[in-house]
């Protein structure tokens, strides 16, 4: 843990960072805690290194009245997600499988470029190449088969929930589901979820990782995930894992 000096407002610390050998700074899951009247930044990292804490507030003009405003600003201020520009986020835009995998990798503070790439459609010169390698090595992602990942395909809700649950292995988060079908019955369209995704979907329902789409309690497992929904899901993963 890093002790926060007297006189420094702990609310002015948004995240911890690590600076890699190439000079690149990246987020490390960080939670501000109080112990015996003193504040500390608890750095939750999978590796040993030298860390620093920063104040990096980010706000976007196009989400002032958006339901996910708090989640988006928090994830952006932690260097996990970024906007389309400095002021625009486009919360309702669909997100790709490569983008979602990248954001989870960043959220967990994992270094891009670790492990091997077994996907023939993930080129070494692609901006997401290093993140896909790391996400695959940690078991967060898997492909369609035939060594294909489909990085530019839009990610569906059931695919996203599967990645989130896979990431729980890394964060040591356990959410128990006694009966998958009973848990899924909360949603009228749960039966439309692919069999391979029902277990992960039930875990996300039980853990309130992903909200219903509307007042009719629709899960819509085949629907594409938006940038705003991604921010909400990843933030909930980190919060429930007690990492932030």
From TrEMBL:
Domain of life: Bacteria
Residues annotated as domain SLH: 55-114, 115-178, 184-244
Entry keywords, A to Z: Repeat
Protein name per Swiss-Prot or TrEMBL: S-layer homology domain-containing protein
Origin species: Natronincola peptidivorans
Pfam families listed in its UniProt record: SLH (PF00395)
InterPro entries named among the record's database cross-references: Cell_Envelope_Struct_Comp, SLH_dom
């Amino acid at each position: 843990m890093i002790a926060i000096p007297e006189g420094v407002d702990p609310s002015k610390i948004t995240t911890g960072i690590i600076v890699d050998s190439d000079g690149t700074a990246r987020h490390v899951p960080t939670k501000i805690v109080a112990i015996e009247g003193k504040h500390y930044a608890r750095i939750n990292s999978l590796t040993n290194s030298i860390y620093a804490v920063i104040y990096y507030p980010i706000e976007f003009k196009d989400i002032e009245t958006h339901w996910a405003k708090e989640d988006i600003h928090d994830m952006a201020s932690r260097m996990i997600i970024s906007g389309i520009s400095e002021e625009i986020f486009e919360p309702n835009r669909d997100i790709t499988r490569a983008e979602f995998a990248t954001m989870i990798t960043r959220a967990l503070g994992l270094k891009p470029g670790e492990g091997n790439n077994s996907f023939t459609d993930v080129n070494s010169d692609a901006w997401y190449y290093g993140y896909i390698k790391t996400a695959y090595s940690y078991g967060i992602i898997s492909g369609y088969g035939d060594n294909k990942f489909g990085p530019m395909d839009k990610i569906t809700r059931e695919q996203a929930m599967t990645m989130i649950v896979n990431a729980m292995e890394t964060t040591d988060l356990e959410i128990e589901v006694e009966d998958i079908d009973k848990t899924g019955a909360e949603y009228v369209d749960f039966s439309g979820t692919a069999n391979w995704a029902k277990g992960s979907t039930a875990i996300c329902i039980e853990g309130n990782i992903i909200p219903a789409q509307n007042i009719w309690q629709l899960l819509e497992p085949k629907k594409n995930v938006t940038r705003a929904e991604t921010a909400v899901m990843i933030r909930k993963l980190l919060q429930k894992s007690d990492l932030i």
